[in-house]
Amino acid sequence: MGMTITEKILAQHAGKTSVAPGDNVWVDVDVLMTHDVCGPGTIGIFKKQFGQNAKVWDPNKVVIIPDHYIFTADPHANRNIDIIREFAKEQKLPYYYDVGTENYKGVCHVALAQEGHNIPGEVLFGTDSHTCTSGAFGMFSTGIGNTDAAFILGTGKLWVKVPETMRFEFTGTFPPYVMAKDILLQVIGDIGCDGATYRTMEWAGDAVYKFSMEERMTLCNMAIEAGGKNAVIEADDVTFDYLKGRTDKKGIVHHSDPDAKYCFSKTYKADELEPVVAQPHSPDNRALARDCKDVKLDRSYIGSCTGGKITDFIAAAEILNGEKVKIDTFIVPATKDVEKDLHRETIDGKTLAQIFEDAGAKIGEASCAACLGGPKDTFGRTHGTEVVISTTNRNFPGRMGSKQSAVYLASPYTAAASALTGYVTDPREFIPARV
Amino acid sequence: MKKKIQGKAFVLGNNIDTDQIIPAEHLVYSLSDPEESKNYGKFALSGVPIEDSGLPQGKIPFVNEGQYQSTYKIIIGGSNFGCGSSREHAPACMEIAGVEAVVAESYARIFYRNSIDGGFFIPLEAKQKLTEEIKTGDELTIDLENYTLTNETQSKSYSLNSLGDVIDIIEAGNIFEYAKKAGLIPK
Ligand code: SF4
């Protein structure tokens, strides 16, 4: 019987010719990623289980990216960075991207891609639930906890239950005002925030293949908000163009067989989609952006692994160009590379950074920042009853800091358009003139 | 593995996510340092909106002010328990607070896996909606041989789903002990 992309990757890494959903298999791991929040715990368990002087199974396969609590005075948070720094030194890890150095990157999922760690056909685990983002490169990637990560550090292996696959196909062309974020919020609204639990979300269709790698990453990033184990998009020329200059590895392109078995399959007409938001306090609480025009906002936040990539800022800048924001607007590039690109990319001869500053937005430093609340002094964190429109991925109570604040999740277009009006705003009100 | 777990119930609703279980601002404490890690017990479930904390009545703190442990040993949850982040601090903080079992309608995958591989507590699946039957403070007994849950306060019994193939890891204690037994890593 045919297999899906995910089944093929897992079979190959388990040394088997085939696997079926529900099988428990031990797979060989190509990359383990951890960061400042889960790294110290992982290292603690690794040492407890394998000994104080234990060595990681392969230093070239361990990637440590501090990104969560970076620019804070919190002593515990800073101590955690010291722990991962020390470990990287002791284990001679070539891929440790230290804070305060030229090598600092920012948000792990975007940095993994930019630094060439995402390779088609490989298996990547990370101590972060949004590790599913890397599936955009046609690989198997998923989030795990400290214990599993410590197990991998010592053995290079992990057991996995082979997931069933759900297929979401988009035919045609997305309208220019619809972004990957809208598609995702649409689908999560359709299947619910546990609609893909234990499953793979496979994205397909000509509309999806027209997306840049950044937009594909957004699409895979929020599989976890539907409970998904991983997300995957078949690698193609767009993938390999992106990889050029970032890695020498070739990878393996897997296709889902025509007779592969899916537990769910749905085809959408791309041109029928509209800008949507997820209302507080759940990512599946979907509504059309235009139906929320009476929701008054205090803040717009554009950043994170979901909505802080260069394509997200280009979209936001298209709308903010020459205008003034009416509410506090925070711009947080996911990584240093994105930050540099804010000063490089131009629209009408102005850099994106210039456009944001002229519009009255505040630009923060590359990191997770207020996407997950964080220590009290975190840039953009909520402290009261703020109503926020945000390009991040979660709007559970307290996610951006204060339990009393309310978060609407939206695309960068919608977040930017809303910044200009102070109300949730369908970006079409600003876009038609330009497309 | 214990054959029976007894204790008071603490009832929560659907979609209890990891930010409610342990708000992100507290993720800075060491999990390996026994003294410092007690802070996780102190803040366990502190992100649950107050009206939803300890149903049906609500407004019941899981851990009392100034304490590091809870008087409730068994959590009753609805669907999609533990959704959100992969932070192992979530199941860890519940164990540190004294939780021995969670009985929910369904779990988010990473949380479920972390609970088992880390050996923090036993995540069980209910066959029916227990959140509307059991009240916070009810005395419960879980029988892990027959997969039943008895509400001693209300004199009612319910059957639970069996643990399936993860039972081997739970019996071994955690994924490391399991791998040692299975000969995957040296003893
Ligand atoms: S940006 Fe937000 S979702 Fe992404 S890794 Fe950071 S905290 Fe997690």
Secondary-structure topology with pairs:
The complex is a heterodimer of chains A (435) and B (187).
Chain A: H1 5-13, E1 24-28, E2 31-34, H2 39-50, E3 62-64, H3 75-90, E4 95-96, H4 108-114, E5 123-126, E6 140-143, H5 146-155, E7 157-161, E8 165-171, H6 180-191, E9 200-204, H7 206-209, H8 213-221, E10 230-232, H9 237-243, E11 264-269, E12 276-278, E13 286-288, E14 299-303, H10 304-307, H11 310-320, E15 328-332, H12 336-342, E16 346-347, E17 350-351, H13 352-359, E18 362-363, E19 387-390, E20 406-409, H14 412-421
Parallel strand pairs in A: 2-3, 2-5, 3-4, 5-6, 8-9, 8-11, 9-10, 14-15, 14-19, 15-18, 19-20
Antiparallel strand pairs in A: 1-7, 12-13, 16-17
Helix pairs in contact in A: 2-5, 6-8, 11-13, 11-14
Chain B: E1 4-11, H1 18-21, H2 34-43, E2 72-77, H3 89-96, E3 101-104, H4 109-117, E4 122-125, E5 139-143, E6 148-151, E7 156-159, H5 167-172, H6 175-181
Parallel strand pairs in B: 1-2, 2-3, 3-4
Antiparallel strand pairs in B: 1-5, 5-6, 6-7
Helix pairs in contact in B: 2-3
The complex binds iron/sulfur cluster.
Q: Fraction of residues of chain A in helices?
A: 25-40%
Number of strand segments of chain B: 7
**Main β-sheet, spatial strand arrangement of chain A:** 4-3-2-5-6
* Straight-line distance between termini of chain B: 20 Å
Largest interface: A-B, 53 and 42 residues
Shape of chain A: globular
The spatial strand order of the largest sheet of chain B comes to: 4-3-2-1-5-6-7
Mean pLDDT of chain A: 96
> How would a textbook summarize the main sheet of chain A?
5 strands, parallel
Query: pLDDT under 50 segments of chain A (min length 5)?
Result: none
Query: So what's the oligomer here?
Result: heterodimer
Question: Which structural class do the helices and strands of chain B define?
Answer: alpha/beta
Radius of gyration of chain B: 16 Å
- Give the CA-based shape of chain B: globular
Instruction: Tell me the fraction of residues in β-strands of chain B, as a range.
Output: 15-25%
Please indicate the percent range of residues of chain A in DSSP E strands (runs of 2 or more): 15-25%
Structural class of chain A: alpha/beta
